[in-house]
Amino acid sequence: MAHNEVIKIDLHNVDLFHEVNLHVPSRTIYFGGSPYTLDEVDSVSVAEVIKNLHLLEHLDPGRPITIHLNSCGGSWYDGIIIYDCIKALESPVTIIGMGKCFSMGSIILQAGDARVLMPHTYLMCHMGSDGYSGHSQDFINWAEVSKRVNKEMMQIYYEQMVKKNPKITVKQIEKMFDHDTVFNAEEAVKLGLADIIMDYVTKG
User: Fold this and answer.
1) pTM: predicted TM-score of the whole model, two decimal places
2) What is the CATH number of the domain that holds 93?
3) N or C: which end of the chain has fewer CB within 10 A?
4) Which of 34, 45, 71, 103 is catalytic?
């Protein structure tokens, strides 16, 4: 590019990317660092992602979408909406894990048609945790729901991990993830929790 060439920047798209984490020209969504929810998976951050996915799918059905994911995790009931919506899209979705994909963030990562990790990204997987108040029967009822959710969670991990490790079982994964278990990018790919590590050349 010549030094005197004028670079034109579409400020509307810049504003969109900074305000609602959506860059329309490159069909890129950024999840993490929202001014309202930071990097937590909750109803507010999830609503933003779902709206952005819907917009990109509506604008050009079938064209690839990229999600940059940097999340400490959060609500299963909110995060699984993102997982389901990505799976239902006509557009193929590449999810790029950056920094951390913890807890629900590691589940969302599994929805990608391509799961890419930056070299220094970490995944944390574990069983879900809950807290309730109310009648004793409420505790019993919600405990059963928690068991069901944990089974669904482990099944999502299993469906990806078994592709890389055909002999692995759900029981083994449950034992592996019965507490906070952290993997670096290489370990995550080896286990089947991601596909590749992004290759880049450091500047000298």
Assistant:
1) 0.87
2) 3.90.226.10
3) C
4) 103
